[in-house]
Write a structure and sequence with these properties.
alpha/beta; Alpha-Beta Plaits; two-stranded antiparallel ribbon; 8 helices; 7 strands; binds flavin mononucleotide
Length: 256
């Protein structure tokens, strides 16, 4: 029987994938208890609907211990981890460990960096340690579920949060007065036509002619970050306020 932990990772821009790999390394062979690892990004403080859809058919085979992680862009993970815990519990898993890790923000650019370069070596070491501690807990037969809602965000400076919230309010007002779609744009001169963007788009929002179906695109930036020719660009209106207000490094945190 294969006792390697199963990994369920939804990671459009690849940060969560790196964290999942490090957790798995730390967790080892799964201690014979068939643990599963779930990793999802935080979108607007929530677990993305697309991740729920991607894991929709996943069910535990018998109260399997689950090691959970959310990755976020150094702003806040809010209720996303608790939502992931609820999601896996409803599918019969037992969330025995839950953590939150910082990865480069999907909207980070060289002009407006947000958690650029993360997860770095320190983050990956921490994720591996989290996996190791979760493995130790499982091996010791301690299958007490965690209350993921107990893990709170590392606070940001109040002034930063207020400035950012003021921006969000103003943005929403502008959008309700004159709605404007913000979508990735393709630089046709750079595009080689390889089609990788179609393959990596988790929302199947890119058509064969490389136009975008606005009703499907969630602006996850998989196309932007994974295009080998850097032909996709997404100028998020949130990039600058995020970069200006959430530059203080946050650390990984978890509960077991
Ligand atoms: C639509 C959207 C919403 C996001 N919302 C948040 C958020 O609320 N808080 C935060 O810190 N980061 C947020 N992020 C950043 C992502 O959580 C972060 O970049 C994450 O590492 C992406 O994971 P991935 O690299 O595995 O795709 C958001 C990103 C996108 C695309």
């Amino acid at each position: 029987m294969n006792m390697e932990p199963d990994v369920f990772c939804f990671s459009p821009t690849g940060g969560g994938e790196k964290i999942a790999r490090a957790i798995r390394k730390g967790l080892g062979d799964g201690c014979g208890k068939s643990p599963c690892i779930f990793v999802v990004p935080v979108y607007g403080g929530r677990m993305p609907d697309l991740a729920k859809k991607a894991f929709g058919n996943v069910h535990a085979t018998g109260n399997n211990p689950a090691v959970l992680a959310v990755v976020y862009g150094n702003r806040a993970f809010e209720g996303a981890l608790a939502e992931l815990a609820e999601f896996v519990s409803e599918r019969g898993f037992n969330p025995v460990a839950a953590g939150a890790f910082v990865c480069e923000h999907s909207y980070s650019t060289s002009e407006t960096p947000v958690a650029a370069g993360r997860p770095d070596a320190e983050d990956l070491k921490a994720a591996e340690e989290f996996g190791r501690l979760a493995g130790e807990k499982i091996l010791a037969g301690n299958l007490m579920p965690v209350n993921a809602a107990d893990l709170q965000d590392e606070p940001s400076p109040e002034a930063s949060v207020n400035r950012f919230m003021a921006f969000v309010r103003e943005f929403k007002e502008q959008q309700s007065a004159a709605p404007r779609a913000f979508l990735p744009e393709l630089d046709k001169d750079r595009c080689s036509g390889c089609g990788i963007c179609l393959a990596v788009c988790p929302a199947t929002a890119i058509r064969a002619d490389f136009s975008i179906d606005a009703s499907r695109c969630v602006a996850c930036c998989a196309c932007v970050k994974k295009c080998p020719s850097h032909a996709w660009i997404f100028m998020s209106p949130f990039a600058r306020p995020l970069s200006e207000n959430f530059s203080l490094r946050k650390s990984p945190r978890w509960i077991l």
